[in-house]
Amino acid sequence: MDIYTKQRMKMVDSQIRSRGIRDERLLKAMELIPRHIFVDEGLADQAYNDNPLPIGEGQTISQPYMVALMTEALELKGGEKVLEIGTGSGYQSAILSKLADRVFSIEKIASLAGRARSILDLLGCFNVLTRVGDGSYGWRGEAPFDGIIVTAGAPDIPMPILEQLTIGGSLVIPVGSLSSQTLLRLTRLSEDIEDVKREDLGGCRFVSLIGEYGWGS
Ligand code: SAH
Questions:
Q1: Whole-angstrom distance between the N-terminal and C-terminal Cα of the chain?
Q2: 143-154 burial, b if ≥16 CB within 10 A, otherwise e?
Q3: Is residue 179 annotated as a catalytic residue, yes or no?
Q4: Distance CA 15, CA 17 (A)
Q5: CA nearest 181: which of 159, 162, 209?
Q6: pLDDT recorded at residue 217
Q7: Catalytic one among 62, 97, 105, 136?
Q8: Where does ligand 1 bind, in terms of residues with CB under 6 Å?
Q9: How far apart are CA 140 and CA 153, in angstroms?
């Protein structure tokens, strides 16, 4: 077993399983996906630490536990169509690619999107479709989605995104101020866009969602 595989197994045990994540498919995906190739070579030895890391352009790859918590909240079984807003490094997309049928991911910063795309190709994650743009509008041409995950903090729930959920589908999103947010899960219950179940999954701190339905461009 190479050093990174060892670190990865340890990460899943000590940071993910131990904190109550039980979805076996998710735990397997996290044991499988080489997180260290999603960060700069100079940071590879820190890739399995219990914290976010810089990925350039003032952005970060989320803490492994946050990726696990958000992904588990989508309750994926394998047949779903999922939207991610904020591709960043591509790590979260790669995890989703193992758990859903198709993944659509939007990133605002072209250089990050390009880098993420090459890593996803290298890993053979061909069920992930990526695009550069303002994800606060969602991805109307591909809607509706069974699950939507927003990996940047928003001041409010972007309505276009909520409208792109299937009935029964969930949106997982950090909402709050620029410096701290609450992770929310909103489950759409009917055609009526106001008819949603809202659950609080705890406090968090994300980089900002910059866009029309985010913090402004
Ligand atoms: N899921 C990522 C986390 C990246 S951090 C990972 O696994 O690495 C959040 C990302 O959201 C940043 O790359 C940032 O550029 C991007 N972002 C911010 N506002 C956005 C918007 N309106 N549309 C798309 N991406 C956005």
A1: 46
A2: bbbbbbbbbbbb
A3: no
A4: 6
A5: 209
A6: 74
A7: 62
A8: 59-62, 85-86, 88-89, 91-92, 106-109, 112, 134-136, 151-152, 207, 209-211, 214
A9: 21
Q: What pLDDT does residue 1 have?
A: 76
Q: pLDDT over 70 for what percent of the chain?
A: 100
Considering the entire predicted model, what is its pTM? Answer: 0.98
Question: How many residues does this entry show for the chain?
Answer: 217
In the block, which residue shows the tokens 């997982």?
172
- Which residue shows structure tokens 């859903």? 100
146-159 pLDDT, tens per residue?
999 999 999 999 99
Average pLDDT over residues 27-33: 98
DSSP character at residue 137 = G
Nearest CA to 67 out of 46, 90, 45, 44 is that of 90
Angle, CA of 69, 72 and 78, to the nearest 5°: 150
CA distance 117 to 123: 10
Question: DSSP string of 74-91?
Answer: T---SS-EEEEE--TTSH
Interval 45-72: pLDDT, tens: 999 999 999 999 999 999 999 999 999 9
Q: Whose CA is nearest to atom 10 of ligand 1?
A: 86
